[in-house]
Amino acid sequence: MENPALEKHPWARFIPHRLDVEWEFIGDAAIHPEIEGIRGRSVVFLITKTFNRFERMLAKILRAPKQVRRTMHPTQSMLWELIDNQRNFLEICSIMERLYHEDIVPVGPRVQAYLEVFVRLNVVTVFKPQEEE
C-alpha cells in the first residue's frame, strides 16, 4: 500500500531506537503482521520511580510501590514491537497502515504522536539519518 503523502512526511527516513528499559508482554496475541518476532501482545513498561528525600520518606510511610507499570494501547504496543533500531518511520507506518487500515488514519501523524509519547517516557529516541553527500 503506497502512500505518497507519507513519503513526504518530515520523519519519513527517521529511525526510532529503543532505549534500555524494562518491559514485558501481557495478554494474548492480537492483530499482528507475519513478521518473525512480532507477537501482537500488549506491552507494559516497568518504570522505576525516583524520589527526592522527602518523597522517599512519604513513600515509605504510605508503602508506595517503587515501580510503575504503564500498559500501552494496542497500537502503541505494536509500534514498540516494530521498533527494531533498523526500520525507519516510513517502513513502520506502512506496516501499521496495512494492519490497522482506517483505524490509524492519518498514519503519519498518529505514529509520530505515539513516538513522541515514547520519547517523553524516555523509552525511545529517534535518529535523523545521515544525509548522503
Report on this model:
The structure is a single chain. With about 130 residues, the protein is of the alpha+beta class. The chain has one domain (about 5-25, about 40-120). Helices cover about 35% and strands about 20% of the residues. The chain has helices at about 5, 55-60, 75-80, 90-100, 105-120, and strands spanning about 15-20, 25, 40-50, 65-70, 125. A 3-stranded antiparallel beta sheet has the order 2-3-4, with helices on one face. A two-stranded antiparallel sheet has the order 1-5. Helix 4 crosses helix 5 (about 105-120). The mean pLDDT is about 90.
Short summary of the structure?
The chain is an alpha+beta fold. It has helices at residues 4-7, 53-62, 74-82, 89-100, 107-120, and strands spanning 15-18, 23-26, 42-48, 67-71, 124-127.
